Every structure is written in C-alpha cells, then in structure tokens.
Amino acid sequence: MIRIVKVGGRPQSDPKLAGLLASQWDRESAGLVVVHGGGDEVSALQSVLGGSTTFVGGRRVTTEADIGIVRMALSGSANKRLVSALVDSGIDAVGVSGEDAGLIAAAPLDVHTMGFVGRPCRINVALLRHLLNGGYLPVISPVSRDASGSLGSALNVNGDDAAAAIAVALGATELLLVADVAGVMLDGHVIDELTPSGAQAMIADGTASAGMRAKIEAALTAVAGGVARVRISDINAIADADRGTFLSAIGELS
User: Is 150 exposed, middle or buried (0-12, 13-18, 19+ CB in 10 A)?
Assistant: First the structure.
C-alpha cells in the first residue's frame, strides 16, 4: 500500500507538518511518498529578482529565465527545508527533484501560452522503489526534465500534476492533495464527495478556479489512471483519513 501526499507551499509553513508526516511513516512498510510545491516562495524570489508572476488555469507561466528561479525555490530551498524538518523528526528522508535520474519526464504543455511548463509523461518508478525498499522517504520537488528536448533540460511542472502522475505510476492506494483549506468549498461548506462529472462541471462553470482548479484536474487524472481514493483537504487530513473532499469514479461506472 502506497500513499502519495502532496503538500502545497502554504501548509509547509505549519510547524505541525513534519510531525504529522512522521506519524504516518513506517520504515518497514515504506508506503509513503511526499511531493511538495512552493508557489509563494517562487513568486517572492521572482519579485526580488525583478520578475513578474502570471498564472493560467492555476499553473504558473514560466519563462526560460524563470527556470533557474523555480529550481532555486523548489528543488533548493523548499525541498531541503522540508527534508531537514523530517530528518529532525526521525525520518530517513531523501530530497530529490524530478530532474534527478529523470524521475519525472514531462512534455511541454503549451509553449505559446505557458512557456517552459510541462505535464508529466513518464515516471522513473525504479528510482522510487529503490528508495522506498531501502527504507527512505522520497521528498520530491516537481521540477522535471523536458522529455522532448525542445526547450532545454528542465520544465516547471505543477506539484499537483506531478503527484497525480506518481500516484498512477506507483499504483498508489491514495493521493492526498494538501491545501490551505479543508476541502473543495461550495457556499462556504466542504463538499464531502465529488464524482468526475461533478468535478468537471465545477471547472466548466468556474466554481473551481485558480489553484483549486489545478488540484481538481490533477485528482481527475489520478482517478482516470486507476487511483481508487483521492482527497483534497488541509494539513489535518494527513492523520485524519476521513477529512476532506473525496473524489472517485464510484457511482459513475456502468
């Protein structure tokens, strides 16, 4: 049983995070993979360096010059800070990026609109299983290799998209997308369950937008790829298996 937990940038600032992940880690069962984002950190570094931030559909437009910034913020600062906190909590955590050993190969998404942004097309499952079988917790930055080779060596991949692709590739039992809200919200309340058609309707009518749209799209990808259980929730859902919005194909299978 393998569980993928993707942690957004804002939840990473919660001092409870490392302890919650540590409570779920069993070195012998090796059933946990952590993927992280860090959008606010990327935006802050862009601002300091005189750049600007633009999003389309919840994904960051990335220029060639931005790739170095994304690497510094995600594969550098955010990744190593989280790894350090996990090691302090007694976990043998290993930080890697999607570039390491071609862990995540991505195809350009829409060069004209998005620039150096990709969508995962291949996961180096052997590397992940090697780490897990050795008793190590992989902590993954979603910066990925350009599988096409047309834009250079790296592409910026949304962390939710990376986590969904990894969940499908590993045949994960659950994908948990940790945000800064308790779940997918409608009229101020958490939606307990979403079917794929219901999720697609929320995207189509604009109810789900920006970052939540990206999360729901990633959840749909995971469900379509065979992941039985996908949740969107906040940091407390790491330890509470009943918390958040659940998305699955149950009820729509004929």
Answer: exposed
Residue from 203, 157, 204, 162 nearest 184 by CA: 203
Report the alpha-carbon distance of residue 249 to residue 213 in Å, rounded: 18
- Rounded distance between C-alpha atoms, residue 221 and residue 167, angstroms: 10
- Which residue ranges make up each domain of the chain? 3-247
Helix (H) / strand (E) containing 80: helix 79-88
C-alpha 228/C-alpha 250 separation (Å) is: 9
The yes/no answer on whether domain 3-247 falls in CATH 1.10.3720.10 is no
pLDDT of residue 253 exceeding 70, the answer is no
155 three-class SS: strand
Q: Is 98 exposed, middle or buried (0-12, 13-18, 19+ CB in 10 A)?
A: buried
Coil/strand/helix, residue 90: coil
The predicted structure's pLDDT at residue 252? 58
- How many whole angstroms separate alpha carbon 76 and alpha carbon 41? 11
pLDDT band at 165 (very low <50, low <70, confident <90, very high): very high
Place of tokens 């990633």: 218
Query: Which has the closest alpha carbon to 66: 120, 108, 114?
Result: 114
Instruction: Summarize pLDDT for 169-201 with one digit per residue, the tens.
Output: 999 999 999 998 999 988 889 999 998 988 899
Closest CA relative to residue 159, chosen from 46, 12, 22, 13:
12
